[in-house]
Amino acid sequence: MRNSKFTKILMLVASGFFLIQCTSDLEIPDPIVGPAGQDGIDGVDGIDGADGTASCVTCHSNATRDPIKASFAISLHGTGTSFARGSSANCAQCHGEAGFIDYVETGIVNPEGYENPVPINCSTCHDKHGTFDFENDGLDYALRNIDPVTLVIDESTEIDFGGSSNNCITCHQPRNSYVIPAENGTGKYVITSTRFGPHHGPQSTVLEGIMGANLAGSVGYPGVGAATHRTGSSCVACHMGPSSDTNKGLHSWNPTAQACISCHPNGAPDEINGFTSDFETLEQLLTQVVGEEYAEDAEGDPVFDVDGNPVGNGTPVVGIIIDGRSQTGIFTTAEAQAAWNYMTALEDKSKGIHNPDYIRALLKNSIEALQD
Fold first, then answer.
1. Rounded CA gap, 345 and 288, in Å?
2. Which residues contact 139 (CB under 8 A, 6 or more apart)?
3. Which helix (H) or strand (E) is 276 found in, with range?
4. Closest CA to 272 of 194, 352, 355, 162
5. What average pLDDT score do residues 319-334 get?
6. If phi over 0 gives left and psi between -120 and 50 gives alpha, with beta otherwise, what is residue 293?
7. Confidence at 337, pLDDT banded by 50, 70, 90
């Protein structure tokens, strides 16, 4: 019985080898190939497209970047030592990269401040393009902000210089630390800081013709946004013109002569007519103003009576402005307004050129108010 089963198994194995050998010896005929067909007609060559990087190379090349870097290196943005204040939450909006970026993107800065602040550099103002359709949308230069800017000092006011110049307004505007003096029914104004005034950046508001203390006087104030530099030029056109001298134009922000000659063929003035005389006269009058020290509460804040009048302690304060800095004390509203206008002209740094009619009115009407 065992031999019978064993014999059957051997026969099955032998059959398998036989079948494998048979199939492996079969020949498969080659496919039948017909005669070659006739060649088709050649297509029309397409038109070469524009180089996809051509528009990029216009700006992103060493030939373009090297002069920008050289001019930035001599600018106040590139060399200013004040950027150490970028660690402070009060100053970081404009004195350091992280604070500036946070403010542009979120509207606020870190209330805790910033450790080891990075000074302003390329990536502070430039990030990525909002569009690559430059032909239809215009060049945005990858600026972080080209939109209209709501002022810090007055959130109901928005300034729109258009395009690239709007990035400048982000910092070149007054801070909101101090209120523009206005009549409040008491005829008095209390100055509590030696930094009183439109702290450091009123260039945009002067150009717009706003945020001064518009004292009544013999000189009328121009309309808002009516200055020729406002209607016929821009921050970028005047301060960043093309130049072969890296000390002028480009990212030095020093105006070139070429940027001015189309309107000033005989050369641009260094200041408006009468600026130095009026500025010095106002400064002298402000040193002669006599105010009074204010009484302080337990926290060191000014004391006011039940009618809202500031309470003095009887000690006189001579000079509301001394050596370009304010003194603390109680002064008349008109005196404080004149001091605000002086600081506006001082901090603007253009000697009236940004908006001649507006600065002239602020200075002359302030002088008249102090001489009355």
1. 19
2. none
3. helix 275-287
4. 352
5. 97
6. beta
7. very high
Whether 132 shows a pLDDT value over 90: the answer reads: no
pLDDT class of 346 with cuts at 50, 70, 90: very high
pLDDT of residue 335: 98
β-strand 158-159 against 312-318: which pairing, if any? unpaired
Extended strands (E) in 164-279: 188-191
Token digits for 73? 């290196």
Rounded CA-CA distance 127/104 in Å is: 12
User: What's the pLDDT score for residue 27?
Assistant: 65
| Beta bridge partner(s), residue 158 | 150
Residues 6+ apart with CB under 8 A from 291: 316, 317, 320, 327, 329, 330, 331, 335
- The 10 Å CB-count burial string (b at 16+, else e) for 92-121 is bbbbbbbbbbbbbeeeebeeebbeebbbbe
Check whether 239 has a pLDDT greater than 90: yes
DSSP structure string for 308-338: SPBPEEEEEEE-SEETTEE--EEEEHHHHHH
Long-range own/partner contacts, residues 111-118 (CB < 8 A, 24 or more apart) = 113/87, 113/88, 113/89, 114/86, 114/87, 115/87, 116/87, 117/83, 117/84, 117/86, 117/87, 117/92, 118/86
Could you tell me if residue 237 is left (phi over 0), alpha (psi between -120 and 50 degrees) or otherwise beta? alpha
∠ CA(142), CA(201), CA(167), 5° rounding?
10
97-131: per-residue pLDDT in tens?
999 999 999 999 999 988 888 888 999 999 989 88
304: β partners: 310
Q: Count CB neighbours of 232 within 10 A.
A: 10
Beta strand 158-159 with 149-150 is antiparallel
Burial class (CB in 10 A: 0-12, 13-18, 19+), 271: middle
Q: Which residues, in sequence order, are CB contacts of 42 under 8 Å at separation 6+?
A: none
- For the ranges 177-186, 197-206, 217-226, the one whose mean pLDDT is highest: 217-226
- Global confidence as pTM: 0.83
Kindly list the distances between the CA atom of residue 289 and the CA atoms of 86, 321, 336, in Å, as whole numbers in the listed order.
35, 8, 10
d(CA 223, CA 210): 9
